[in-house]
Write a structure and sequence with these properties.
- This protein has about 100 residues and is an all-alpha fold.
- It is built from three helices and no strands.
- It is rod-shaped and about 110 Å long.
- About 0% of the residues are buried.
Amino acid sequence: MVKSHLGTIEAREELRTLTARRHWRDAWIWAMVKSHLGTIEAREELRTLTARRQDLEHRLAHLYETLVSKSAWLSTKLGASPKVLAALETYRTAVRRIGKGTL
């Protein structure tokens, strides 16, 4: 019985030792990974790139808007008769005068 009890105590101690070693190794690996991730962190660079992307997307949207507008006017001009073109020119002049406050 004493021999059996001693074997149980030894087995428990061995289990504790193995568990402690495993936890120590896991903790060590976790610390190494965390340290590595800290050195390669690029949060600020990502923020900068995101802001730049948003600015470029805004500018691109404005360019698309301008392109579509000019394309529509070109299509209208190419398909219009001389009489319609004269009326559009009169309209453009009137709008320009309204903008200047001379009308």
